[in-house]
Design goal:
Number of strands: 17
CATH class of the largest domain: Alpha Beta
Largest sheet: 7 strands, mixed
CATH topology of the largest domain: Aspartate Aminotransferase, domain 2
CATH superfamily of the largest domain: Type I PLP-dependent aspartate aminotransferase-like (Major domain)
Cofactor: pyridoxal 5'-phosphate
Number of helices: 11
Strand order of the largest sheet: 4-12-11-10-7-5-6
Keywords: Aminotransferase, Pyridoxal phosphate, Transferase
Helix content: 25-40%
InterPro entries: Aminotrans_3, Aminotrans_3_PPA_site, Class-III_PLP-dep_AT, PyrdxlP-dep_Trfase, PyrdxlP-dep_Trfase_major, PyrdxlP-dep_Trfase_small
Mean pLDDT: 97
Low-confidence stretches: none
Strand content: 15-25%
Organism: Paraprevotella clara YIT 11840
Shape: globular
Order of helices and strands: EEEHHHEHEHEHEEEHEEEHHEEHEEEH
Pfam families: Aminotran_3
């Protein structure tokens, strides 16, 4: 049997990681400014993370959600305090797409509606309704194209008000920093206006914090830069530092009903141990604050280089887009194969920087030198 060939792969086999560095099977070290697609929040192979998972695996790896799991309760309490949403409820699943599926389902249960407003260039996942809310027709199968979603431009408040005034919108789903969309930032005016219009029409506001959340923006959640409070917040990626996990934070306006949502593997004992270890490390090492500080250092450093082909540098914290006036492919390949540095990408001309939140200023300065060599040569 062969692998189903849907991923274009770099010919690099990564076999080891530590902090913000990874190594291939030939012993070559790489600086990781990609974080496994924004998944690695506290660094590769952090000793506390390893110890917590190893200890839990020696006790119990899994049992079903038909019994009490006190690790879930502890995680909900710890996360509520860390992010400032202690009065919210918590539902655990396995991925970002699942988180968005369940958030949209909850929204529809709440107000009985079917239509969703999403953003142009949005990415919300690859499952049924999550992929329909994703503005990429290439990955929406005919069976998923059910006419539920209207895409509107980012920061076009008037367009959202017009659609919300029709009274048939179930939910608005927003990435406050679009990842796949090219590190495009929602404005405070836009988000506060959407929040008000949602309140006036009893529409549910969902903030997809799967990539931009969990400390990456320099606040725990990206929407906290914008002065809004969503009804539902979806998280995944960095929540488990690589252990598959997702969750929905649910406002008190929602009343749970037995059987309404469900999952087999969500919130299992190992996943909760991973997520608790992540919170431990984020708090102990002040990684949210570090993301803000080092992210600003990195963005200002790239701007100061005044590199050819770099036309814009944008983002918040350690979620940064470097827009080029040429396709990113050659620069990204040179960074990887000549400078041994992983970066992400978006569209055809944006480099995406999504390093672990423990990236230090010395490592950021090292990256600036590598980027300068590549772009100037």
């Amino acid at each position: 049997m062969n692998l189903f060939d849907v991923y274009p792969l770099f010919d690099v086999n990564i076999v080891k990681g530590k902090g913000c560095h990874v190594w291939d099977d030939k012993g070559q070290e790489y600086l990781d400014l990609y974080g496994g697609h924004a998944v690695i929040s506290v660094g590769h192979c952090h000793p506390h993370y390893i110890e917590k998972l190893t200890r839990q695996l020696g006790r119990l790896g899994f049992y079903s959600n038909s019994v009490v799991n006190k690790l879930q309760v502890e995680l909900a309490e710890r996360l509520g305090k860390a992010c400032g949403y202690e009065d919210y409820q918590f539902f655990l699943i396995n991925s970002g797409a699942e988180a968005n599926e369940n958030a949209l389902k909850l929204a529809s249960f709440y107000n009985g509606r079917k239509r969703v407003l999403s953003l142009s260039k949005a990415f919300h996942g690859r499952t049924s309704l999550a992929v329909e809310a994703t503005d990429n027709p290439k990955i929406i199968a005919p069976i998923n194209a059910n006419g539920h979603v209207t895409y509107l431009p980012l920061n076009d408040l008037d367009a959202f008000k017009v659609e919300l005034a029709k009274g048939d919108v179930c939910a608005v789903i927003v990435e406050c920093i679009q990842g796949v969309g090219g590190i495009r930032l929602a404005t405070a005016e836009f988000m506060q206006g959407v929040r008000q219009a949602c309140d006036e029409t009893d529409t549910v506001l969902i903030c997809d914090e799967i990539q931009c959340g969990y400390g990456r923006s320099g606040k725990f959640f990206a929407h906290q830069h914008l002065g809004v409070k969503p009804d539902l917040i979806t998280v995944a990626k960095g929540i488990g530092n690589g252990f598959p996990m997702g969750a929905v934070l649910i406002s008190p306006k929602f009343t749970p009903v037995y059987g309404q949502l469900g999952t087999t593997f969500g919130g299992n004992h190992l996943a909760c141990a991973a997520a608790l270890a992540v919170l431990d490390i984020m708090e102990e090492e002040h990684l949210v604050e570090n993301a803000a500080k080092v992210g600003n250092f990195l963005m200002e450093g790239i701007k100061a280089l005044r590199l050819p082909h770099v036309v814009d540098v944008r983002g918040r914290g350690l979620m940064i887009g470097v827009e080029l006036d040429v396709p990113y492919k050659e620069i990204r390949n040179k960074l990887l194969f000549e400078e041994h540095c992983f970066t992400g990408c978006s569209g055809t001309n944006v480099l995406r920087l999504l390093p672990p939140l423990c990236l230090g200023e010395a490592e950021a300065a090292d990256f600036l030198k590598r980027l300068e060599r590549v772009v100037n040569n």
